[in-house]
Amino acid sequence: xxxxxxxxxxxxxxxxxxxxxxxxxxxxxxxxxxxxxxxxxxxxxxxxxxxxxxxxxxxxxxxxxxxxxxxxxxxxxxxxxxxxxxxxxxxxxxxxxxxxxxxxxxxxxxxxxxxxxxxxxxxxxxxxxxxxxxxxxxxxxxxxxxxxxxxxxxxxxxxxxxxxxxxxxxxxxxxx
Length: 176
Description:
Distance between the termini: 118 Å
CATH architecture of the domain at 47-138: Sandwich
Oligomer: single chain
Shape: rod-shaped
Largest sheet: 5 strands, antiparallel
Protein name: FSD2 protein
Organism: Geococcyx californianus
Domain Fibronectin type-III: 46-142
Pfam family, one: fn3
């Protein structure tokens, strides 16, 4: 029967015409609503702490910061560069480190040198504004004692040393 039916020519006519409207559907409101359901706001700017005592060696600095808000944070972006009054050179190049914690120890720095630090927070929504900049200073290099110039007597001693630092050192502590 199917074979016979398929051989027949069928002409269908509809008794009424379909009434279709062309509709333009605006889904922007729905899209905004859907996006707002699972969206977390971009974080606020972190607050960088001033340099803590004993947070520096001649070649490293420990930098700490915090947040005022209860933002959702994936990581932090710590930026730094040496402070210089001269024209920028390769040594004044800006460096960036990504970290998960609210602290970071930066190594391979120059002794007795000022560095400018700032930090931003990152999450899925974007990056925060940068914190205010803070200046940290590495410790001076230990001086070199000139043993050929050492003189002593019963009540006194003369000890001479030379500094290896490019920047002036404020003071030295001599321990006996």
